[in-house]
Design a protein that fits this description.
It is built from 14 helices and 17 strands. Strands 5, 6, 7, 8, 9, 10, 12, 15 and 17 form a nine-stranded mixed β-sheet that branches. The longest helix is centred in the last third of the chain and has 25 residues. It is elongated. The termini are far apart.
């Protein structure tokens, strides 16, 4: 009798793997059984000898949950061991740093590509408010959002040039596996190139001078601010973000095994990724991001990391995902930011300060580390609101200088033509007009405006 795979529902003679615990359901392979464990676990109970009644009960439960009656298996297939089941439980429970999970023989789902179709941005009509509305609708129904042609083509060209320049002057470090209660618990971070193979650079616009990268992150911030108008219905308020993570996966290397960005409620609510890979085809180059949204159980979607594509999804356990290995010598690039929920972020910081497992609250180095993390959250509510006090001061000085310049221009504009001619006669042939104006008692703030009006350099 042919069996049907409980994960992909294929029915043929190759579906021979069986759950070694309940002996009731079949799979195409070990990988499919692992992916189906979350759905199968509630009805999976060991079958004992002379226990036909319990077996009948389990079969009925399986019919109710899965919608099909499994074939009863023989007892000659023990390919999936208790160890494998424990690995799957570690994954489902959110233990993303489990050694057992990371050392499985097949860390990536090898099922065929199932590429998602993205919507295309209308650069004439899709402002931040419109995009935020589309994004919210997609997040609620699918758990993720994909948009192509996010930037104008000429701007994308400049963005590529800036990324290349940044690589020549900056150091990209090996990506780490997070640990602890907030992203500031760096002492608990580890590196494992079999699990995560990217190299990253943490980028913050207020300290960098790459205009197009800054504008891209600013556009993301504007959309997230607009998204807040919708998220309030869900009790969520985005109040800041991490620095932007610019990541490069080298060609012919591992990707990033399945994980959750925020399994421990560290405050990250929304993940935003922008891809930069021209002519990329995951069927050829690999590197696809495979997402498993829990809003639609027992399925997955692939996102091709093509140029000028924006991907947004919930950062918590609603969206386990993985980055598949690159198959050619081409490097794969992406820019990622995470946006914080106000309440969850506050609670995470409190736990980080008080939890004994993350360090003694009296330890100066730990306190310094946490304080550094507190000030690294970038506020997105306004373009002039940041937690960095030196930045606040600089922005305030710029604002005051602009006000002074505006007042100076108004004062010069109020001068009559006769007054302007008189100033010009005095200054036209002198070597140092600034010194003459200073002797005349003209305020420094007005001097430049006056010389500009008179066309005197």
């Amino acid at each position: 009798m042919m069996s049907s795979c409980a994960f992909c529902h294929r029915s043929d003679t190759t579906v021979t793997k069986v759950c070694s615990r309940c002996k009731l359901v079949y799979y195409c392979n070990r990988e499919h059984q692992k992916h189906h464990w979350r759905s199968h676990k509630p009805v999976c109970q060991p079958i004992t000898a002379n226990n036909d009644d319990s077996q009948t009960i389990i079969v009925n439960q399986h019919e109710q949950l899965v919608g099909e009656k499994p074939a009863i298996a023989n007892n000659d297939d023990e390919q999936i061991t208790r160890k494998t089941e424990k690995e799957v439980v570690n994954y489902v429970s959110g233990d993303m740093n489990s050694k057992k999970l990371h050392e499985t023989e097949e860390p990536w789902n090898l099922c065929p590509l199932k590429l998602i179709e993205a919507i295309t941005r209308n650069l004439n009509d899709d402002d931040s408010v419109t995009i935020a509305t589309k994004m919210y609708d997609s997040l609620r129904t699918d758990g993720f959002f994909v948009m192509d042609d996010f930037m104008e083509e000429v701007k994308f060209d400049r963005l590529e040039e800036e990324i290349q320049l940044l690589e020549t002057v900056s150091t990209f470090n090996a990506g780490l596996l997070d640990g602890g209660l907030t992203s500031g618990d760096t002492k608990l971070q580890t590196s494992n190139r079999n699990v995560r193979s990217d190299y990253i650079y943490w980028y913050e616009p207020i300290r960098e001078k790459y205009e197009t990268i800054n504008n891209l992150i600013g556009d993301m911030d504007d959309i997230m601010v607009s998204l807040n108008d919708h998220l309030c219905d869900m009790g969520v308020e985005l109040i800041g973000r991490t620095k932007a993570m610019i990541a490069r996966y080298p060609g012919n290397t591992n990707g990033y095994t399945r994980h959750v960005d925020n399994p421990n409620k560290d405050g990250r609510c929304v993940t935003v990724i922008f891809y930069l890979n021209r002519g990329w085809n995951s069927a050829i180059h690999g590197g696809n991001l495979r997402i498993y949204p829990t809003i639609t159980p027992d399925t997955y979607w692939d996102i091709d990391p093509i140029r000028n594509r924006l991907l947004v999804f919930w950062s918590d356990r609603r969206n386990p995902h993985e980055v598949h290995p690159t198959k050619t010598d081409r490097d794969r690039y992406a820019i990622t930011t995470w946006y914080f929920d106000k309440i969850e972020r506050k609670l995470a910081k409190q736990r980080s300060l008080n939890d004994p497992e993350t360090g003694d609250t009296k330890n100066d180095s730990m306190q310094s580390n946490i304080q550094s993390e507190l000030t690294s959250d970038i506020n997105i509510q306004s373009s002039v609101e940041f937690t960095d006090q030196s930045t606040l001061l600089r922005l305030r000085c710029d604002e005051v200088e602009k006000q002074i310049n505006d007042k100076s221009n108004e004062a010069v504009a109020a001068l009559s033509s006769d007054e302007l001619d008189a100033f010009k006669d005095i200054l036209i042939n002198v070597d140092d007009p600034i010194a003459v104006l200073t002797q005349l008692g003209i305020a420094t703030s007005i001097q430049n405006s006056l010389l500009k009006k008179l066309n005197i350099q």
